[in-house]
Design brief:
The structure holds two protein chains of two kinds. Chain A is α/β, with parallel strands linked by helices. Among the domains of chain A are: 177-236 and 410-431 and 443-497 and 499-548, Rossmann fold (3-Layer(aba) Sandwich); 241-405, Dimethylsulfoxide Reductase, domain 2 (3-Layer(aba) Sandwich), CATH 3.40.228; 585-729, Barwin-like endoglucanases (Beta Barrel). Chain A has 38 helices and 43 strands. In chain A, β7, α8 (214-226) and β8 (230-234) form a beta-alpha-beta unit. Chain A is globular. Chain B is mainly α. Among the domains of chain B are: 18-114, Cytochrome Bc1 Complex, Chain D, domain 2 (Orthogonal Bundle); 245-328, no CATH class. Helices cover 41% and strands 2% of the residues of chain B. Chain B contains 17 helices and five strands. The two termini of chain B are 62 Å apart. The chains are: A alpha/beta, B mainly alpha.
Chain lengths: 1098, 417
C-alpha cells in the first residue's frame, strides 16, 4: 500500500481499457439489428442527427454569431443583475396564507394520505376487465388489474391503464342537453316519455355496442316490456360478426369460444392481432406470455406462426412470419386445411407453400395442443378455420366452448336491417348507447341524414360525439368509475362494478334512464343491488361480490362442440374472392393498440402520445407501406424516411371515399398491402386532443356478400399529392449506439444446445478484469494496492471475500476491478429489475402505467417532433432481416428505462449533485436541486433522461408560463389535474427527470414493513410497469434478499439468459435483460448472407 | 354496591394502548382523562352518566368490571340493569375497554368519587398587574446618537485647535481631505456593505420559512386547554399521525364527540384565554362557533339535518401553520410509529400553547441535523434485521448505535420524489 502511486493506477486503468477496446472490436458478434431503415444504411444526415443529443440547435447558434451578437457582455451583466434583483424581490414577497381544510364529517374508511383500492370493472364496448382502482382522498388515480380474477390474472392493456384519464376528460358532457342546449333530467324525461307515448306503433330501436351486463340487459328487457315495439340492435365498431356467424353455422352457437393460448404448443394466426387488438388482447397476451417463459432447465416454448398482410404487434412477436395479401387469408386457410389432410397446396403465393407444409406438419404433430385463429370477418374464412381447429383437435382443448367470450356479440346483419329501416322511414325513434354509428359505421352518413326526421333520437354518450351531435337529446352517462354495474365478459365469469367517485357531472347511467322511462323509479344502485341479491341470494353475498369484484366459478368448464360446418361451400365461396391485380395494393383497415375503435380514446392525450408499438408514431394515422412499394410509388421521401419528419402525402381512394394521408414506410409490410388505422379524424366537439388529429377511414370499410363489414379492400387507388406532412415518430429519438450488441437473441435450438453461450460470452468479454491471469487483476489484496483505496480493499476483503456462488465471483470481480472509483455496498435493500425480452410483446401498457403513476407529462405533437417526448419507458423496436423482403423481417422489443447504474455516468457530471446514488442502488433525481444543465442526459449512454423543455403542467412558480399547443391543453384544467398522483412531484420547466424505480412505491412498502416491525416480503413493492405487464416480463425486487425472485432469477434460474446493456462500459446497471429466444430455424440478425439466403428460400 | 354505569359511543378510541398507563399504581385521574373523559364527567351526566358514585349504583363490583370491559356482552346477556341504562342513554353502546385492569377501573372510580369541582381561584392578580418588561432600545439609541455627535464635535474641535496651534507655531497644516475621500472611511464603509450583504444573503435563505408563524385561526382553539390541562392524547384528534403521511386535522364530528356535552368553557377562572395581543377570549363563545360549523343545535341537543337526513356541517378553514414545499415528502406515521419521535420534538411544547405557532423552522438543514443525530430503533424493530453489517458491528463493540443517516436517511430521494 505504501508504494502506491496514482500514475501507476491510471496507467493500469487505461491499459485495461485499451485491451477492453480491442476485445470489444474483435470479439464482436456479427449480429445486425436496426431500429429504422436509416440505421441499416446510414446516411450522413442520419449519422449527424443521432450524434446530436438534442434535435434542434441551441438558440444562440454558433460561436461566431455570439461574437457578433448585438447583446454585449455589459448588457448581459445588466440583465443578469436585473433578474437577480427581480428574483430576490419575488422571493422576498410575503408568504401566502394557506388553509388546511379537514373533512366536515370524515367518511369512516378514509385516511387522508393513505390510498384505498376498490374492485371494479373496466368496460369499453363489450370488453370488460376486472380491475382494482387506486383512490386517494376520494378520487381514482390509477387502475391496476384484479389479480384475483382467474380470467385475466391482473393483466392490463395500455387502454385500461389510460382509462382513468377519460374520467377527468374536460370534453365530457356536463349535463343533459336538448337540441344542444343545456337542460335538466326532468325535462328530458318528460320529452322522452311524451315521444314514446306518441310513437303510434312505429318501432323504436335501441342501438348499442355489445352489452354483456346482465343487469343492463334486464333493464333493456324491462323497457322493451313497457314499449313492445322496441328492438335492440347490437353492433361492434370493429365487427366480429363473421366469426360469430361462422360459429353459429359450424357449432350451433353464435358465440366466440374461450381461446386457451396457454394450452397451445403451436399457435397459428392468420391475420389476427390477438396480442394487440383482437377480441380480448389482455387475456390472450397473458396466456401467450405463459408459453414464452423459458429457462435453461426447461427449454420449451410455444411455436408461433403469423400469416398476415400488414405488420401487426402479434406478427412482430411471431417466431416465423409469412406475408400475403389479406384477400388471400381464405385461400391460405383452405390450403392449410388441405395440407393438414395431406392434400396439395394451391392458390397461395409460392413463398408460402413450403411454410404451409411445415405448419401443417407442426399442427398435426401437436394435435390437441395447437390453435389456429384468424382475424378475418368473413364467414367462409372463419368456417374453414373452424374446420382446421376441428381437424387438429383444438375444439374442446384450446378452443373452449364450455365458456364463451361475450365481449363481442354485435351483428352486422341486424345493423344493416336497422339502417335499411331507417332509410325507408320505418323507424319511429332511436336510442344510441355506447356507440357512434355516424362516425364508425359504413352507413354513418345515411344514418346522420335521417336522424333529424325521427320523433325521438337520444344518444347516451359521455361526449358530444358525431352521433350525439345529430340526435335531439343528449343523455350523458356516467363513466364506469362513477357507476354501479356488472359485466359478464365470459359466460359464468362476472365482474362487479362499483363507483370510486361521485359523478363529476350531471350524468345518469343508461340503465337508470331506461328504467325511469319505463316507469320504474329506482336508482342504479338499488337496481343493481336488487338484481344481484335476487341472483346471489343475500345482501352478504352481494357485499362480498362487490368487495372482491368477482363472481367466478372455481374451475373453468372445458368442453367442445360438434363441428357441422360446410367446408366445401365455404371453399367454393373463398375461391370467388377477388384479390387485387398483381402489383397493385390492397388496403387493410385496422384498429391501433392505443386508439382502438376511436370512441373516447381518440381524446385521450396519453394514448394519442403513446408511440404505436410498431410504427413508433404518435398523434396521427397514416398510410403504412413496405419500403419496396414506397420506392415504387415515389412515396419514399429520401433515404431519411425516419429522421426526416416530413412525409409525402398521398390520396387514397377506396369504396367511394377519398382521404389524404401521409405515408409511413414500415418494413415487414407485404409489398402489395397498405394499411390505415381507424379512430382518427374526429369532430371538434369530441375534444381538443381528438380534433384535427388524423383522418377518418371508417367510410372505406366494405361489405362482403353476406353483409358483414370487410376491413380489407381489394380495389384502391393511391396517388402522390406532392405535399408533405410531418409525423411525430419517436424511434430515432434518444438513440444510442454500441459496437457490441444491445440485445441478445438465440434460436431455441442453439439455446438448447448451449444455454450457456451468452453467459460464457459475457464471462470471456470481461475476463481481463476477472481472471487471475489478467494484467492487473491479482486478487483482493492487489486491487487495494493498485487503486490505493483502503475502503475498497477492506470491502473486498470483508464483504466479498467469499461470495457464495461461483457465478457471482467474476461479476463481482468486474465490479471491483473495472473502475478507479471506490465501490459501495448496499447494506439493506438493493433494488433490481429484470426484463424478459422473450415474453415482452411490446404492447406499451407499461409506458402508460408509468405515465399514470408518475405524472409524466404529455407534450403534444409539435414537441414530440422536436424529440421532447417525456415517457420514462421507451420501448425500442428493433428489426432484423432484409427490408426489401417482408417475410425476412424479425422484430424485437426492448423496454428501455433508467438502468440505475451503480457506476452512473450521469451522476459524475452533474455540477450541483442533483442526481446521485442511493444506498439502495437507485439513481436518484432531486428535481428541486436540478438547474437544467442537461449534462446528465448528454452523458447517459442509454438515453433515458427526459428534460422539461417547457412548463407542461403549470408547475412553475411563475403564473401563465404553461406551454399550450391546442391539443394537449386539456391536461391542465382543474378537472384533468385530478388524475395526478399526489405522491409524485409534478416537475416544472427546466428540470431533468427519468425513471425513479417507482420510489414512492418502494418507500411506501418499506414504511409499512417498518411500522409493523418486520422485514419486507418479496413482491411487496411492485413498480407500476411491473404491475401493468400482462406477461409478467418485468421482475423487480431486493437483490440483497437471497430468497427474492429477482435474486433467484439472476443467479440461479435464468443466469444463462441474463445480460446487461452496454455492460462493457462498467456502468453496472441495476436493470438486467433476459435474452430473446426465437423458436425459428434462423435468426435474420445472425449473418447478413444467411438472412438473405433464408429470405430467398422463403 | 354500585348502581349505575352507562355506556356511550366513543367514535374513535384507537389510541388507548396499554403503554400509556403502565404505571406501578394506577393513576385514576390520568386513566379517567385518557379513557373516559370523552363521554363521562365525574359529576355531571354527559354522553354517559356521571361517574361519581357509580360503584354504589351498579349491582356489583364484578358487574362493573364486566361492563367496562365489554358492555355489549352484558347487555346481550339480558341483564336488566344494563338494559335500563342502555335505553336511558339512547342505545348508544359504550366502547369496551378490554385492556383496563380491575385495579385501574377501581382507581378511576376512586378518582370520580373523590372529585371536587374546581372552586373559583383567587383572581390571578400577578399577571394582570405586572408591568410590561422595559424596553431600552430608545434609551440606547439616544445615547448612541449623543455619543456620535460628541465624537464629531470633539474631532472638529481637535482639528480647529491643532490648526490654530500649527498657525501659531508657523507649521504647515496638512491638507483637509473631505471624509468621502478618506481612504479609511471608504474602506470601513465598503467592508460594512460587504459584511451586511453577506448577512443579508445568509438571512435570505430564511425567505419562505415561517418559524414562529402564529396566525389567527377561525376558532380560538387552545391546545393548552385540550392537550395540556385536560390531557387529551394528541392522537385522539390527530389520528392520522400513526397511519398516514398526514397527521390529519380532525373533522368537526370528532370535536363533537366531546363537545356534544361540553358546551361551556368552565376554566376561565384558572386559565383565562387571551390572544397574543392580550384580547380576552370567551371560550364558550368559541364552542358556539364550533356548533355553527358542526351543524349542531345546542338547544335541541341534536344535529341540524337537511331533507336527505345529512348533517349540515361545514368544514373549518383552519390557517395552515406548518407548510412544507410540494417537493418534500414527509410522513408523520413513519416518525411517530417506527421512529418513536414525540410530537413535541418538532412541534414544541404544544400542550403549553393556547395559540399554536411554528416551533421549528422546518428547513432542510433542520431535518438533516435530526437525521444525523437520531438513533434508529435498531434492535427493537425487526425491519432492520437486514442490516447484518451493523448488527455484527454492534455485537463486536465497534459501533454503539445506528443513526438515521447510517441507513440512508440523508439521501435525496428519501424525501424528494
Amino acid at each position: 500500500m505504501e508504494d502506491w502511486n496514482v500514475n501507476a493506477a491510471i496507467t493500469n486503468f487505461y491499459h485495461k481499457r485499451k485491451i477492453q477496446r480491442q476485445l470489444t472490436t474483435t470479439n464482436m458478434s456479427k449480429k445486425q439489428y436496426w431500429r429504422g431503415l436509416e440505421e441499416l444504411n446510414p446516411t450522413s444526415q442520419y449519422t449527424e442527427t443521432v450524434a446530436n443529443e438534442f434535435k434542434e440547435d441551441l438558440p444562440f447558434g454558433d460561436v461566431e454569431s455570439i461574437a457578433e451578437a448585438s447583446t454585449s457582455r455589459r448588457d448581459f451583466l445588466k440583465y443578469l443583475g436585473f433578474s437577480t434583483v427581480a428574483a430576490t424581490i419575488a422571493a422576498s414577497c410575503e408568504m401566502p396564507v394557506r388553509h388546511a381544510i379537514p373533512y366536515a364529517i370524515k367518511p369512516e374508511n378514509v385516511t387522508p394520505g393513505v390510498p384505498l383500492l376498490y374492485a371494479s370493472t373496466y368496460i369499453d364496448g363489450g370488453e370488460a376487465v376486472p380491475v382494482l382502482v387506486r383512490t386517494r382522498e376520494g378520487r381514482p388515480i390509477k387502475i391496476e388489474g384484479n389479480t384475483d380474477s382467474k380470467l385475466t390474472e391482473g393483466a392490463t392493456t395500455a387502454r385500461i391503464q389510460a382509462s382513468v384519464l377519460n374520467l377527468y376528460d374536460a370534453a365530457r358532457l356536463k349535463f343533459p342537453m336538448i337540441d344542444k342546449k343545456e337542460s335538466t333530467w326532468e325535462a328530458v324525461d318528460k320529452m322522452v316519455s311524451d315521444a314514446l307515448n306518441g310513437m303510434g306503433g312505429a318501432p323504436l330501436y335501441i342501438v348499442t355496442s355489445t352489452i354483456n351486463s346482465a343487469s343492463t340487459a334486464s333493464a333493456v328487457a324491462q323497457f322493451a316490456a313497457k314499449y313492445p315495439n322496441t328492438k335492440h340492435v347490437m353492433y361492434d365498431a370493429i365487427s366480429y360478426s363473421g366469426l360469430l356467424d361462422a360459429n353459429l353455422a359450424c357449432f350451433g352457437k353464435r358465440a366466440i369460444p374461450a381461446y386457451q393460448f396457454d394450452q397451445a404448443k403451436v399457435i397459428v394466426s392468420i391475420g389476427a392481432d390477438f396480442l394487440g387488438t383482437w377480441i380480448s388482447p389482455e387475456i390472450y397476451t397473458r396466456q401467450y406470455g405463459k408459453t414464452r417463459k423459458i429457462s435453461a432447465k426447461n427449454p420449451t416454448m410455444s411455436k408461433h406462426y403469423q400469416l398476415e398482410g400488414m405488420m401487426s404487434l402479434t406478427g412482430s412477436s411471431a417466431d416465423e412470419r409469412y406475408t400475403c395479401k389479406p384477400s388471400q387469408y381464405g385461400a391460405v386457410a383452405v390450403a392449410l386445411f388441405n395440407a393438414l389432410n395431406g392434400g396439395s397446396i394451391s392458390g397461395v403465393p409460392a413463398s408460402m407453400t413450403e411454410a404451409l407444409k411445415k405448419i401443417a406438419a407442426d399442427l398435426n404433430a401437436n394435435k390437441g395442443s395447437a390453435l389456429v385463429v384468424c382475424g378475418s370477418n368473413d364467414v367462409n374464412v372463419q368456417t374453414v378455420v373452424n374446420a382446421i381447429n376441428n381437424a387438429i383437435g383444438a375444439i374442446g382443448t384450446t378452443v373452449n366452448f364450455g365458456v364463451t367470450n361475450n365481449s363481442k356479440q354485435g351483428s352486422d346483419a341486424e345493423m344493416n336491417a336497422f339502417t335499411a329501416a331507417l332509410s325507408a322511414g320505418q323507424v319511429g325513434g332511436v336510442m344510441f348507447f355506447d356507440c357512434n354509428p355516424v362516425y364508425d359505421h359504413v352507413n354513418g352518413k345515411a344514418i346522420a341524414d335521417k336522424l333529424a326526421s325521427l320523433k325521438l333520437s337520444v344518444s347516451f354518450s359521455e361526449r358530444m360525439d358525431e352521433t350525439t351531435d345529430k340526435c335531439k337529446i343528449a343523455a350523458p352517462t356516467n363513466h364506469w368509475l362513477e357507476s354501479w354495474g356488472d359485466a359478464e365478459p365470459f359466460s359464468g365469469y362476472t365482474s362487479m362494478m362499483q363507483p370510486t367517485i361521485s359523478p363529476l357531472f350531471k350524468t345518469r347511467p343508461f340503465a337508470e334512464s331506461l328504467l325511469t322511462w319505463s316507469g320504474n323509479m329506482t336508482n342504479q344502485y338499488d337496481f343493481v343491488k336488487a338484481f344481484w341479491i335476487s341472483k346471489l341470494g343475500s345482501q352478504e353475498a352481494f357485499d362480498a361480490a362487490i368487495q372482491k369484484g368477482l363472481v367466478e366459478p372455481e374451475t373453468m368448464t372445458v368442453s367442445g362442440a360438434s363441428f357441422s360446418g360446410n367446408v366445401a361451400d365455404a371453399t367454393a365461396k373463398i375461391a370467388a374472392i377477388k384479390s387485387s391485380a398483381e402489383g397493385s395494393p390492397e388496403l387493410v383497415i385496422y384498429d391501433k393498440v392505443g386508439i382502438g375503435r376511436g370512441a373516447s380514446w381518440s381524446n385521450n392525450p396519453w394514448l394519442q402520445e403513446m408511440p404505436d408499438p410498431i410504427t413508433k408514431c404518435t398523434w396521427d394515422n397514416y398510410i403504412l407501406m413496405s419500403p419496396n412499394r414506397a420506392k415504387k410509388a415515389g412515396a419514399e421521401h429520401t433515404d431519411l424516411n425516419e429522421v426526416d419528419r416530413e412525409k409525402k402525402v398521398f390520396t387514397l381512394k377506396a369504396n367511394g371515399a377519398t382521404v389524404k394521408l401521409p405515408v409511413l414506410v414500415l418494413p415487414g409490410m407485404h409489398d402489395d398491402v397498405i394499411a390505415v388505422a381507424v379512430g382518427y379524424g374526429r369532430a371538434k366537439s369530441v375534444g381538443m386532443a381528438a380534433a384535427n388529429t388524423g383522418v377518418n377511414v371508417y367510410p372505406m370499410v366494405g361489405k362482403d356478400a353476406a353483409g358483414n363489414s370487410s376491413y380489407t379492400v381489394s380495389t384502391v387507388e393511391i396517388a402522390s399529392t406532392g405535399e408533405t406532412y410531418p409525423l411525430a415518430i419517436t424511434q430515432t429519438h434518444h438513440s444510442y449506439e454500441s459496437k457490441r450488441p444491445i440485445i441478445h437473441e438465440f434460436t431455441l435450438d442453439s439455446f438448447k444446445k448451449n444455454p450457456n453461450e451468452l453467459f460464457e460470452e459475457r464471462k470471456a468479454e470481461l475476463e481481463h478484469y476477472t481472471s487471475p491471469n489478467g494484467i492487473v487483476a491479482h486478487g483482493g489484496e492487489a486491487h487495494g494496492e493498485a487503486h490505493g483505496d483502503a475502503h475498497k480493499a477492506e470491502a473486498h476483503g470483508d464483504a466479498h471475500a467469499a461470495p457464495t456462488k461461483a457465478d457471482e465471483d467474476w461479476q463481482e470481480a468486474y465490479r471491483q476491478n473495472g473502475t478507479l472509483y471506490p465501490t459501495y455496498d448496499s447494506l439493506g435493500m438493493k433494488w433490481g429489475m429484470s426484463i424478459d425480452l422473450n415474453s415482452c410483446v411490446g404492447c406499451g401498457s407499461c409506458t402508460i402505467a408509468c405515465q399514470a403513476e408518475n405524472n409524466v407529462s404529455v407534450v403534444g405533437k409539435n414537441q414530440v417532433l422536436k424529440a421532447h417526448d417525456m415517457h420514462w419507458i421507451r420501448i425500442d423496436r428493433y428489426f432484423a432481416g432484409d427490408p426489401t423482403k417482408p417475410d425476412s423481417i424479425q422484430t424485437l422489443f426492448q423496454p428501455m428505462i433508467c438502468q440505475h447504474c451503480d457506476n452512473a455516468p450521469c451522476e459524475n457530471v452533474c455540477p450541483v449533485n442533483a442526481t446521485n446514488h442511493s444506498s439502495e442502488g437507485m439513481n436518484q433525481m432531486a428535481y428541486n436541486r436540478c438547474i437544467g444543465t442537461r449534462y446528465c442526459a448528454n452523458n447517459c449512454p442509454y438515453k433515458v433522461r427526459r428534460f422539461n423543455w417547457r412548463d407542461w403542467n403549470e408547475a412553475d412558480c411563475f403564473d401563465g408560463n404553461a406551454y399550450s399547443d391546442g391539443r394537449r391543453d386539456d391536461m391542465n384544467n382543474d378537472i384533468t389535474r385530478m388524475v395526478l398522483n399526489p405522491d409524485v412531484t409534478v416537475r416544472s420547466r427546466g428540470v431533468m427527470e427519468k425513471c425513479s424505480f417507482c420510489i414512492q412505491r418502494t418507500q411506501s412498502a418499506k414504511a409499512t414493513a417498518k411500522k409493523q416491525g418486520r422485514t419486507m416480503k418479496d413482491g411487496e413493492a411492485r413498480t407500476a410497469c411491473q404491475q401493468a405487464c400482462p406477461t409478467d416480463a418485468i421482475v423487480f425486487g431486493n437483490v440483497n434478499d437471497r430468497e427474492s425472485a429477482i435474486f433467484k432469477l439472476r443467479y440461479e434460474e435464468q443466469k444463462e439468459r441474463v445480460f446487461h446493456v452496454l455492460e462493457e462500459i462498467h456502468t453496472l446497471p441495476n436493470v438486467n435483460y433476459l435474452s430473446k429466444i426465437r423458436n425459428a430455424e434462423h435468426l435474420q440478425s445472425a449473418h447478413a448472407e444467411e438472412g438473405h439466403a433464408e429470405a430467398k428460400k422463403a | 354496591m354500585a348502581k349505575d354505569i352507562k355506556g356511550f359511543i366513543l367514535l374513535a378510541v384507537f389510541l388507548l394502548t396499554s403503554t400509556y398507563f403502565s404505571y406501578a399504581a394506577p393513576d385514576g385521574k390520568a386513566l379517567f382523562q385518557a379513557n373516559c373523559a370523552a363521554c363521562h364527567n365525574p359529576i355531571k351526566d354527559a354522553t354517559g352518566p356521571a361517574l361519581k358514585g357509580a360503584d354504589s349504583r351498579v349491582p356489583s363490583k364484578e358487574w362493573l368490571y364486566k361492563w367496562v370491559k365489554n358492555s355489549a356482552a352484558v347487555i346481550a346477556s339480558g341483564d336488566k340493569y344494563a338494559n335500563e341504562i342502555y335505553n336511558k342513554y339512547n342505545k348508544t353502546a359504550m366502547t369496551g375497554f378490554a385492556n383496563l385492569k380491575d385495579d385501574e377501573i377501581d382507581a378511576i372510580i376512586k378518582y370520580a368519587n373523590d372529585y371536587a369541582p374546581p372552586t373559583a381561584a383567587a383572581p390571578a392578580g400577578g399577571a394582570a398587574g405586572a408591568p410590561a418588561p422595559s424596553d431600552n432600545t430608545l434609551l440606547y439609541t439616544i445615547l448612541t446618537i449623543v455619543l456620535l455627535i460628541s465624537i464629531l464635535i470633539l474631532t472638529q474641535v481637535n482639528k480647529v485647535l491643532s490648526r490654530a496651534a500649527n498657525v501659531k507655531a508657523g507649521l504647515p497644516s496638512p491638507r483637509d481631505v473631505p471624509f468621502f475621500r478618506n481612504k479609511v472611511v471608504i474602506a470601513v464603509i465598503a467592508t460594512m456593505i460587504i459584511v451586511s450583504f453577506g448577512v443579508w444573503l445568509t438571512n435570505a435563505s430564511e425567505f419562505g420559512r415561517q418559524k414562529n408563524y402564529m396566525p389567527k385561526q377561525p376558532i380560538y382553539y387552545s391546545h393548552k386547554v385540550h392537550a395540556g390541562i385536560n390531557q387529551i392524547n394528541c392522537l385522539y384528534c390527530h389520528a392520522g399521525a400513526e397511519k398516514s403521511r398526514h397527521a390529519m386535522i380532525p373533522s368537526t364530528n370528532v370535536c363533537m364527540n366531546c363537545h356534544k356535552q361540553i358546551n361551556e368553557y368552565t376554566g376561565a377562572a384558572t386559565h383565562p384565554l387571551t390572544t397574543l395581543e392580550g384580547k380576552s377570549i370567551d371560550g364558550t363563545a368559541e364552542i358556539k362557533k364550533l356548533y355553527e360549523y358542526a351543524g349542531w343545535d345546542p338547544a335541541k341537543k341534536d344535529y341540524i339535518r337537511n331533507a336527505k337526513g345529512e348533517i349540515k356541517a361545514t368544514p373549518v378553514e383552519w390557517v395552515k401553520i406548518h407548510n412544507l414545499p410540494d417537493h418534500v415528502y414527509f410522513n408523520h406515521s413513519l416518525h411517530v410509529v417506527s421512529g418513536k419521535v414525540a410530537c413535541q420534538r418538532c412541534h414544541g411544547n404544544i400542550e403549553q400553547m393556547d395559540e399554536v405557532f411554528q416551533f421549528a423552522d422546518l428547513s432542510m438543514g433542520w431535518c438533516i441535523n435530526c437525521h444525523r443525530n437520531t438513533n434508529v430503533q435498531f434492535a427493537d424493530n425487526n425491519y432492520y434485521s437486514i442490516f447484518q453489517k451493523y448488527h455484527d458491528e454492534i455485537k463486536s463493540g465497534k459501533r454503539q448505535d445506528v443513526k438515521v443517516s447510517d441507513i440512508g436517511g440523508l439521501e435525496c430521494q428519501r424525501c424528494h420524489y
